[in-house]
């Protein structure tokens, strides 16, 4: 079965970190989960937030 995997990131910099993982199977089933940032992860870009629509407050 084919599936697509997608990650959203906190920014587009080299210090960015994953904030969401999602997948969808060819039959349409899908799931997504937020990834809680570790305390030392502090790179957040409002421009990236405007694209993925995930607010830092959601964590």
Keywords for this entry:
59 residues; mainly beta; 3-stranded antiparallel beta sheet; 1 helix; 3 strands; 12% helix; elongated
Short synopsis of the structure:
The protein is mainly beta and 59 residues long. Helices cover 12% and strands 34% of the residues. It is elongated.
Strand count, sense and barrel status of the largest sheet are: 3 strands, antiparallel
- Compute the number of helices: 1
Mean pLDDT: 93
- For the termini, the CA-CA separation is 32 Å
Q: Find the count of extended strands (DSSP E, 2+ residues).
A: 3
- The secondary structure category is mainly beta
Bulk shape: elongated
The low-confidence parts are none
3D architecture notes:
The chain has 59 residues and is mainly beta. Helices cover 12% and strands 34% of the residues. The chain has one helix spanning 46-52, and strands at 3-9, 18-25, 30-34. Strands 1-2-3 form a three-stranded antiparallel β-sheet, with no helix packed on it. Strand 2 (18-25) and strand 3 form a beta hairpin.
Helix and strand topology:
Layout: E1 3-9, E2 18-25, E3 30-34, H1 46-52
Antiparallel strand pairs: 1-2, 2-3
């Amino acid at each position: 079965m084919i599936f697509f995997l997608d990650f959203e990131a906190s920014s587009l910099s080299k210090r960015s970190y994953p904030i969401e993982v999602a997948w969808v199977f060819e039959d349409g089933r899908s799931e997504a989960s937020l990834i809680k940032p570790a305390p030392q992860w502090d790179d957040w870009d409002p421009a990236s937030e405007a694209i993925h629509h995930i607010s830092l407050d959601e964590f």
